[in-house]
Write a structure and sequence with these properties.
The complex is a heterodimer of chains A (192) and B (170). With 192 residues, chain A is of the alpha/beta class. Helices cover 19% and strands 24% of the residues of chain A. Chain A has a domain of 127 residues: Beta Polymerase, domain 2. In chain A, strands 1-2-5-4-3 form a five-stranded mixed β-sheet. In chain A, strand 1 and strand 2 form a beta hairpin. Chain B is α/β, with parallel strands linked by helices. Chain B has a single domain, classed as Rossmann fold. Helices cover 34% and strands 11% of the residues of chain B. A four-stranded parallel β-sheet of chain B has the order 1-2-3-4. In chain B, helix 3 links the parallel strand 1 and strand 2. In chain B, helix 2 runs antiparallel to helix 6 and helix 3 crosses helix 6. The termini of chain B are far apart. Classes of the chains: A alpha/beta (192), B alpha/beta (170). Chains A and B meet through strand 9 of A and helix 4 of B.
Chain lengths: 192, 170
């Protein structure tokens, strides 16, 4: 039972909302058009197809595109040892999707992290509160419009934040730009 | 060996005596028994544990026990990244330590925020605590931490103890 076969079975059941499985470098991804049916798809995947281990839930900020959020579920089956990826889009107006904690209990903290970092709410979550930042922190830090250095906040007796000095910008390599050797040439040139 | 000093003291009977200043004696006692309060927050804590283990024994410098209680320790070794979420807890524990107390900022993250120039990391524990010795490194080798401890001991040796002692107002 390969991952592609399991993905085809999933597509067979939910053909109206699931796109064709895409394979890239040995990994199968399925795109779900309607985020409202995510719980049905996930519980079918767990009960019928044996995807009993939720590896990760993560989120993407498509800043500038609509819908703004993409939520990615990585499923794995301990029995058949196959990985499948499910993606859905969530628009910014609602910024809400149903929780899958009813299917896999581990989704609890993953969804809390997504709420903390991106601000996407999960309907029906048992305990949706911030997990990495503190309650009362006013921003969602991993959104693309939030600066890496951070913004000043103050919550007396709990925590404060100040913007970090970046000294000329985050020294990160972006796609299409120069790599580190070109951006920051070393002073000592190896002689060979 | 018998010595007779002008104060009529017989060292063969009564043992040797040294004359010193009270400041020097108190500083000598304090610097040779600096018990650390390990604020081990991240990876530097592992090198702190290595410094406390047998190969790079920190106990031979007088830091006999790592007292995890702030009430019973002299020096707080902040080893690791101080996030904003943890910052006020570190400050609270520092406030609970009894005078005299010192702080060693171990590693790049505790000294300056390290490689984490971001929204969640305090850029150096010296924003909230008065630091006496900074140790560079990511993580610093245990020998570097011991060097910092020796530097702190030299600093403690020069402190004017009695003149700066806090008194309860009458």
């Amino acid at each position: 039972m390969t991952a592609l076969e399991l993905a085809q079975k999933l597509k067979g059941k939910f053909g109206d909302v699931l796109a064709e499985p895409v394979e890239f470098r040995g990994e199968i991804t399925l795109k779900l058009a309607d985020a409202g049916r995510i719980v049905e798809v996930c519980s079918f995947a767990k009960s019928e197809l044996g995807f009993d281990f939720l590896v990760d839930i993560t989120s993407l900020d498509n800043y500038g595109d609509d819908p703004r959020w993409t939520i990615v579920y990585h499923l794995y089956g301990i029995g058949h040892r196959c990985h499948v990826r499910l993606k859905t889009d969530v628009s910014e107006e609602g910024s809400e999707i149903s929780t899958v904690t009813g299917v896999w209990r581990t989704a609890d903290w993953h969804e809390r992290e997504i709420y903390d970092m991106m601000g996407i709410r999960f309907r029906g979550h048992p305990d949706l509160r911030r997990i990495l930042m503190w309650e009362g922190y006013p921003y969602f830090p991993l959104r693309k419009d939030f600066p890496l250095a951070g913004k000043p906040t103050d919550l007396p007796e709990v925590a404060f934040t100040r913007p970090a000095p970046l000294e000329g910008g985050p020294f990160v390599t972006v796609a299409g730009g120069k790599d580190t050797i070109a951006r920051e040439p070393r002073v000592r040139i190896p002689e060979n | 060996m018998q010595t007779r000093t002008e104060i009529g003291f017989d060292s063969k009977i009564e043992g040797d005596v040294i004359h010193t200043r009270l400041d020097a004696a108190i500083n000598w006692f304090r610097k040779n028994s600096l018990w650390p309060m390990p604020m081990g927050l991240a990876c530097c804590a592992i090198e702190l544990m290595a410094a406390g283990a047998s190969r790079f024994d920190i106990a031979r410098f007088g830091s006999e026990v790592m007292r995890f209680s702030p009430r019973q320790s002299d020096v707080m070794i902040v080893a690791g990244t101080v996030t904003y979420k943890m910052a006020l807890a570190v400050k609270r524990i520092y406030d609970q330590m009894a005078e005299p107390k010192w702080v060693i900022a171990m590693g790049a993250c505790a000294s300056t925020g390290g490689m984490y120039r971001s929204y969640s990391v305090l850029q150096g524990v010296d924003h909230i605590l008065p630091v006496d010795v900074y140790v560079a490194g990511c993580p610093p080798r245990p020998e570097a931490l011991l060097d910092a401890l020796i530097k702190l001991q030299n600093k403690v040796a020069k402190e004017p103890v009695l003149s700066t002692q806090k008194t309860v107002p009458a």
